[in-house]
Target: HIT family hydrolase
Amino acid sequence: MSSEPETPDGTAGRPAVEDARDFAGVPDDTQRLWTPHRMAYIGGENKPEDPHDDAQCPFCAAPKRTDEDALIVHRGKSAYVILNLYPYNAGHLLVCPYRHVSDYTDLDEAEVLEVAELTRTAMRVIREVSAPAGFNLGMNQGEVAGAGIAAHLHQHVVPRWPGDANFLPVVGRTKAIPILLADTRRLYADAWPELA
Model:
């Protein structure tokens, strides 16, 4: 007789292999928010076939549309601020250069300065309108780094609040947004400071 405990499949000394499919739908401590509508983004429904073709790039096309239609909050000289169509959190803005460039090191000095200044102003506007407790700022450089449109550089400005979740929504790409994008765009555009 073996001194090792017997496993559920009757074999002593070896743990039973569990099939994860046996646990689908079994309640646990994890609360899940199912968002099947995000499959359009995950599947690349609105992604350009050729990301290097300026004519197909959504960040090149947006400035050619009205601010309301494109969800543009502010237009600068070499960069603009737009709401993310697939936000990680309410009020998620993108700061984009007009020029179709993929790498941060390829920005010219004026673009670097304006992207930085628009990011700072975006934070101030979001604080005034939405009162977040903090921000996630950053650029995903390349598809492997998580860039949805890697061919056109864009800086993320994501407001954060206590209890809004952890960093998982940014990584897992799942989030409930309590305000319509058009309403957020209007609030932020109205609060954007006029330049002297």
